[in-house]
Specification:
Length: about 130
């Protein structure tokens, strides 16, 4: 697999609760946009479902469509996310949804695992191959 080193930053984040529990736990839905720079460049539109425990820790799942280029190859692809978070940051992983690549990224496969803290931009290493 090849490695694409990049950074990403939050462009927009719209989070809304859709179920709040008596113990202080809640479910939220997020629509976000991220920008990428480096060997992975472009922009993503992302949607997450998040669960916050009463203590503020939680889990999330989501899907994102990244449109741009990987090492100069233009197109788009979809990634599936999952992660855990607490007051110090987020630990997450994502993988490319099979068959979602378009343009020069048709047939792309790959994944990324990383941890985030602070307010970004955040470093990312995307391991991928074009099939």
């Amino acid at each position: 697999m090849k490695q694409a080193n990049a950074t990403f930053a939050v462009k927009s984040w719209d989070e809304k609760p859709y179920q709040e529990l008596a113990d202080g736990a809640k479910f939220t839905q997020v629509s976000a946009v991220f920008t990428f720079e480096g060997a992975l460049e472009g922009e993503s539109a992302e949607d997450y479902l998040m669960f916050y425990r009463a203590d503020g820790t939680g889990n999330y799942v989501g899907l994102a469509r990244i449109e741009g280029a990987v090492e100069g190859q233009a197109g788009s692809f979809v990634v599936q996310h999952s992660g855990i978070f607490d007051e110090t940051g987020v630990t997450l992983s994502w993988f490319v949804v099979s068959g979602s690549g378009t343009g020069e990224l048709k047939g792309i496969q790959g994944e990324s695992n990383y941890s985030l803290a602070g307010h970004g931009p955040y470093p990312i290493v995307f391991e991928y191959e074009l099939g």
